[in-house]
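**Paired protein data**
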Amino acid sequence: MWIDTHCHLEAPEFSGEADALARQAAQAGVSQILIPSIDAASFSTVAELAQRHANTCYAIGIHPMYVPQAQDADLVMMRHVLKQSMDDPKLVAIGEIGMDFFIPVYTESPMRERQEHFFVEQLKLAREFNLPVLLHVRRAQDVILKNLRRIRPPGGIAHAFNGSFQQAQAFIELGFKLSFCGTFTHDRAMQLRRLASELPLDALVIETDAPDLAPAWLHDRRNTPLELPRIGEALATLRGLSADVVANATTANAQVVLPRLATLMNR
């Protein structure tokens, strides 16, 4: 049993196929797929998709790469949607939120400040509604950690983690799990492979981030949640463990950090 803690199943790349992929993933042993939103327009899209399958759940949030198109009114809308959706067992987190310093323009004023504004306001919503967060942390780990220490949301997942061992420990100390995806399966990803093999197993979860971040065997073709078991098996091989041990551990870790997911799975 595997949990895909981050999969954009609502993405245009899956148009017309999302439902079939969710069913096929269940047959392949993927017991839950967590679908994060990227902007206000996708809040309802991910919620509606999650309702259609026993093995899908969702999060709502505004992705840092969509901040340029976002309005402050979207944050007001997000709070309203959260208030209306807290009785929905399929809502398990806030996300995808965070900051991105990979693209140079996002590190410059005023975009840097606007990114941080949206991130901080969404952290406050996470704290208000007691929901964990799915973090986008691309080259922005230290700024994100600074705000997590200040606002203290109830934990969450650093998705597609690619920081240092010191940064990893800081996230763990704040109650976060670190998520690994197909990127560590590439031979050239030496730092990622060290992190995936040496960090404590009880700190790790796995994901696909489909349709992006394809594992090595796809050769940059479209990624899907069907790849999750093989990603988990690759992690097991890297750590010298059985696939069952890694499946059980990463599933348990996801349930710890996402309590509403645990409740959903145990209904």
Remarks:
- The mean pLDDT is 97.
- The radius of gyration is 17 Å.
- The longest helix spans residues 111-129.
- Residues 2-265 form a domain with the TIM Barrel fold (CATH 3.20.20.140).
